[in-house]
């Protein structure tokens, strides 16, 4: 008898895993608390993804028209720090479009996709995968994102840092650019909603960019904000198999968060197939997946954790200006 898989959370890891499992003929139910399409706080910059990963998950066609980006420029405050060219292109596409494509593919493949379905984790439940993203904690960070148009940048990915955070701008589809930043929560900033984005940039010393963003055209409904989360490995829930951001959140400067979501699904896939086919007990399945996730992501999470504080420290600017790019990318990919 084939066991069914239940996935809670319809983000990148949940949707791609559901599609891949269905491609192997397994019954899958996916519960998503929200609905599609939707905007999410996300860099919308997929760096370090392997075509083999996308093929194994069966989702390559959703990214065929993603924009390939290679050029990078970095600013501290209003001052340019460096320009670089990535050895391999990153893929840029909005989550609004990508999530919608993935959910349509999931439905076509036969996934029982239930939106506006809020579920709780059930420790020890066989075949239950928790991919519901970050778990709210008392954190010091706020993420802000909007789609803007009519802004000129110096590279396909333009990064702006300062003592309180950083923001990246990258072109996505239809002439829009995604502006997404991570900042230390500043209680002195009293503005609300979309005004938070330029306000945090001004407080971070990125005054030129703040004005350019104020003057740009903003896509209606694209501004999103999220606060209360921690970076790195997330607090484990005993007896719950967690994937994607539910397992670990890498600092966004790496551009590797979306890639890790897909890789989490890829890592879990063969183990979940073996469980569904009755070859591996559920406790052994969970242990094998968690061990594989740890092995795959340990180095990059550790390196990103060590590098992240340097982005905010003025004394580290010479390092950021002159450090060789390839070794750094090797550490965080």
Care to give the gist of this entry?
The protein contains 9 helices and 16 strands. By secondary structure, the protein is α/β, with parallel strands linked by helices.
SSE arrangement:
Layout: E1 5-8, H1 12-23, E2 28-32, E3 45-46, H2 51-57, E4 67-76, E5 79-92, H3 95-109, E6 112-115, E7 128-130, E8 141-149, E9 157-162, E10 165-171, E11 177-184, H4 196-203, H5 207-215, E12 217-218, E13 224-227, E14 232-233, E15 241-242, E16 248-249, H6 257-276, H7 282-307, H8 317-322, H9 325-331
Parallel strand pairs: 1-2, 1-7, 2-6, 4-9, 7-15
Antiparallel strand pairs: 3-5, 4-5, 8-11, 8-12, 8-13, 9-10, 10-11, 14-16
Question: How would you sum up this structure, described in words?
Answer:
The strands form three sheets. Strands 3, 4, 5, 8, 9, 10, 11, 12 and 13 form a nine-stranded mixed beta sheet that branches. The protein is built from nine helices and 16 strands. It has a single domain (5-136, 229-331), classed as 3-Layer(bba) Sandwich (FAD/NAD(P)-binding domain), CATH 3.50.50. It is α/β, with parallel strands linked by helices and 333 residues long. Strand 1 (5-8), helix 1 and strand 2 (28-32) form a beta-alpha-beta unit. The mean pLDDT is 94. Helix 1 packs parallel to helix 6 (257-276), helix 4 runs antiparallel to helix 5 and helix 6 packs antiparallel against helix 7. The radius of gyration is 20 Å and the shape is globular. It has helices at 12-23, 51-57, 95-109, 196-203, 207-215, 257-276, 282-307, 317-322, 325-331; strands spanning 5-8, 28-32, 45-46, 67-76, 79-92, 112-115, 128-130, 141-149, 157-162, 165-171, 177-184, 217-218, 224-227, 232-233, 241-242, 248-249.
